[in-house]
Amino acid sequence: xxxxxxxxxxxxxxxxxxxxxxxxxxxxxxxxxxxxxxxxxxxxxxxxxxxxxxxxxxxxxxxxxxxxxxxxxxxxxxxxxxxxxxxxxxxxxxxxxxxxxxxxxxxxxxxxxxxxxxxxxxxxxxxxxxxxxxxxxxxxxxxxxxxxxxxxxxxxxxxxxxxxxxxxxxxxxxxxxxxxxxxxxxxxxxxxxxxxxxxxxxxxxxxxxxxxxxxxxxxxxxxxxxxxxxxxxxxxxxxxxxxxxxxxxxxxxxxxxxxxxxxxxxxxxxxxxxxxxxxxxxxxxxxxxxxxxxxxxxxxxxxxxxxxxxxxxxxxxxxxxxxxxxxxxxxxxxxxxxxxxxxxxxxxxxxxxxxxxxxxxxxxxxxxxxxxxxxxxxxxxxxxxxxxxxxxxxxxxxxxxxxxxxxxxxxxxxxxxxxxxxxxxxxxxxxxxxxxxxxxxxxxxxxxxxxxxxxxxxxxxxxxxxxxxxx
Length: 471
Ligand code: SF4
Ligand code: SF4
Hints:
InterPro entries: 4Fe4S_Fe-S-bd, 4Fe4S_Fe_S_CS, Cyt_c_oxidase_cbb3_FixG, Electron_Trans/Redox, FixG_C, Helical_ferredxn, Ig-like_fold. Keywords: 4Fe-4S, Electron transport, Iron, Iron-sulfur, Membrane, Metal-binding, Transmembrane, Transmembrane helix, Transport. By secondary structure, the chain is of the alpha+beta class. The protein is built from 15 helices and 15 strands. The chain has helices at 25-43, 81-102, 105-110, 112-128, 131-139, 144-164, 175-183, 189-209, 211-217, 219-223, 239-242, 265-268, 289-300, 313-321, 332-353, and strands at residues 60-63, 68-71, 74-76, 234-237, 308-311, 358-364, 371-372, 378-388, 394-401, 407-411, 415-416, 421-423, 427-437, 444-453, 459-467. The strands form four sheets. Strands 6, 7, 8, 10, 11 and 13 form a six-stranded antiparallel beta sheet that branches. The termini are far apart. The model has no long low-confidence stretch (mean pLDDT 90).
């Protein structure tokens, strides 16, 4: 071993990627997907939904100060966060299902990182030119031209960052009101802080980090290979047809050689800078742009398209072994995913259809657990919360059962009648309640609080303890 060997580097220097412009079927799908997704993203917070006078009329809103999440007819309280968990599980399994069927279609067409990056590269191309011009500008020394072109690119990126990432705040505020505040330069500092943070993170992620996010930061990119099987769609280079690759002159025969002319068009358009001819790689986001680039070359060479195409590992094997190819859409794993989604979706739906409009929560005092009164009776204290999930004020009667002579006294701002507790619309009523009873024989007695709405007689119960002595 010689001591002249270069020291091993922990990090490889990031090579800047300048994706070349390409046009074709998958590029069109990507533009269409971008326009559709951005359209939904912008329009969604402006959809109105009438929930009555006491609730916001924004269809999709996460109201942090009021601790509510609204999604059209669904209103989620903090106590019902399990619905949100269910929806996240549903979304995750849905993504697993799509990945097992169509590979990384989410990464290639719908992931915000891909959509924003596409938009940023488009701006870069408009201002600085296509791949070769951008590469030259990047390597050129500082000049007036470089300064204004980079200045314009970065300014446009910041504006897009604000319009895209920054628009996220509309989902947390009343969108029309916020627009008005923005127009009058009267945005609350907390909201402004979020707009700035989201603008800058979009600018950094889509302007600088780009493919590094997919390769190094995104956990989904790492574990989605676990959802792949031999029938999952991946982008594949047809090695049998393409090799031996090599340059080709017009009019030369294709006999005894492959159809790949080693033009590297597929590499030049790749947003993650890989060569798909080296086989399926973890970096590939399955955007299909290399298919468009290669099909364009095949068209010019008057050769059949799809030297690079959506393929399955199974069919790649079949071709090598000379067996017939087939694509099986539904496999055992797709049924697992569908089954899990059906169960979780069914549970959410069942929960929503049977969602109670009232909830009763009772918390027994910890210290003192009980008080013995001068007449020998025992008093226990409780914190009671009554959740009124409707948009109307409601009056409830609270009683307790389970012990002989059990009575209640309620306190709010002052003494209250436990038989007539007012809880305002869409709010939580907090009450201090004392239960009195002659000393029971056991030190711990099971009792039940019963809450009944005066008008509808809807009933909620809560089992708790009445403590009358030390154990
Ligand atoms: S674009 Fe097609 S022909 Fe050109 S290098 Fe790639 S695979 Fe070969
Ligand atoms: S190899 Fe092809 S499909 Fe994969 S990221 Fe590059 S251009 Fe997109």
